[in-house]
Amino acid sequence: MPYVLLLIVVGMISGAAMLFPGISGSLVLLIIGQYYIFKSYIANVTSFRLEVIIPLGFIAVGVALGILLSAKGDKPSFEKTTGVKRSASS
Predict the structure, then answer these.
(1) Is the dihedral of CA 15, 16, 18, 24 positive or negative?
(2) pLDDT tens, residue by residue, 6-36
(3) Taking phi first (over 0 means left), then psi (-120 to 50 degrees means alpha), and beta for anything else, what does residue 85 get?
(4) Could you give the CA distance from residue 45 to residue 54 in angstroms, rounded to a whole number?
(5) Which string of DSSP letters, residue by residue, matches the chain?
(6) pTM for the full predicted model
(7) Of 19, 32, 34, 88, which residue is the least packed, with the fewest Cβ within 10 Å?
């Protein structure tokens, strides 16, 4: 169970980092020393073995949770800034 939790947390950190411009999830994972886990599973995904696919599923769940939770957490800060353009087209 702790390893599953680690995979979900690693995915959450990576997913949360994807929302911020200029920061990649892989860079954050490299900084915290967990990039090798993700890289090893991605390198072996074409083997279609369950011991590779199931951990990637847990990482994907973590990425989705990280994106959703950090987007929900950032929403109030965007609502407080009035008159600031978010992009050049809006």
Answers:
(1) negative
(2) 999 999 999 988 888 888 888 888 998 989 8
(3) beta
(4) 10
(5) -HHHHHHHHHHHHHHHHHTSTT--HHHHHHHHT-HHHHHHHHHTGGG--HHHHHHHHHHHHHHHHHHHHHHHHHHHHHHH--S--SSTT-
(6) 0.75
(7) 88
